[in-house]
Amino acid sequence: MDRRGQASRAAINAALDAAPADPRAKLLALFDFQREAVIDPGFHGCPVQRTHAELHEPDHPAKRITAAHRQWLLDLFARLVKEARLTSPDYVAGALLVLAYLAGELVPAASFWFFGAATLLAAVGGEPAGYVQLRRRVPPVAGVIGAEAIEIARFYVDRPHHGRGVAHRLMDAALAHAAAGGARDVWLQVAEYNDRALAFYRKRGFRTVGRVPFDFAGVHESDHLMARSGEQGEGVG
Q: How far is residue 228's CA from residue 152's CA, in Å, rounded to a whole number?
């Protein structure tokens, strides 16, 4: 995880070095860098954010690494905002950091809405509790899933709502939306170490149909490629 963070920071610094010297231009360059990342068909979320979301133990060593990475980003935004002489620099830096994370997690679905993608939001008591992003995309392993397939690109439920049925209701909505879109199959990728997610998806009828190599900064992983037929019954609640 530490190597991933270092690689991410090196890529960001390279983008800033290539940008004009003006601090405002460098701020915009950060979002241009994020946009180029999220429109890549192979993008599955920031690896640092992904690790932070999938590890539930607050004292896990990787949590300290992800927290340090976020602090680095906040310090970077704060420095550029001050150099740009914007008012309320601390507030603006924090707001820009939030926007940067939203760009990495939410903008892809909005950008591709008219190209066969959608975002569904789960709410509890009027407050967001989770979301799922669907998109039409050719699976990375050929021959295991039909052409009329929809990918669950992201599926997140906020931790306070775990074990309360929110994930099942969100999955119900996602599968119904995919079926309404004409999908014969629904597929997704899961990190090999995410036992909680693997168990949930298996309960919902997904089965591993292949493995997808994932390499980031020399760290080699093998994601599960999981799929289920849009025509199969639930059998679970």
A: 11
Statement to judge: residues 114 and 126 lie in one domain? yes
Stretch (H or E) spanning 97: helix 89-105
The answer to whether the CB of 190 falls within 8 A of the CB of 223 is: yes
Number of structural domains (the chain) is 2
Helix (H, G, I), strand (E, B) or coil at 27: helix
pLDDT in tens, 6-51: 888 888 889 899 999 998 898 888 878 877 776 666 666 666 666 6
Q: Same domain for 135 and 217?
A: yes
Instruction: Verify that 99 and 123 share a domain, yes or no.
Output: no
User: How far is the C-alpha of 168 from the C-alpha of 53, rounded, in Å?
Assistant: 18
Separation of first and last alpha carbons in the chain: 35
Q: Is 205 left (phi over 0), alpha (psi -120 to 50) or beta?
A: left
Q: Which of 143, 146, 150 lies closest to 112 in space, CA to CA? A: 150
C-alpha neighbours within 13 Å on the C-beta side of residue 57: 6
Exposure of 95 in the CB half-sphere (CA atoms within 13 A): 8
d(CA 27, CA 170): 35
Q: Tell me, what CATH number does 215's domain have?
A: 3.40.630.30
Q: Which of helix, strand or coil describes residue 17? A: helix
